[in-house]
Specification:
Shape: elongated
Strand content: under 5%
Structural class: mainly alpha
Largest sheet: none
Number of domains: 1
Number of helices: 3
Length: 80
Amino acid sequence: MDDRELVSYLRRCNEADNHAYAEVAGRFGGDALLDSHLPTLDLIDQLAQEWQVMDPADDRYPGLTYALRVLTQAYQQPQA
């Protein structure tokens, strides 16, 4: 999987998680999400969006690419 596919995959996983949180909120109310990871998911997606439009010559590009690869590994690990 190249970096573009990897970031697209990460964004799809985040979107699926957001839909799951929305379902929880719909069933149990917004208070059920007070300690959720929604803010983290939003920030990860923001970084992924920035990476998608970032010039590869940007000094931040290699570090952000590495960080997004590491975050994607969390979705690729078997869930307990």
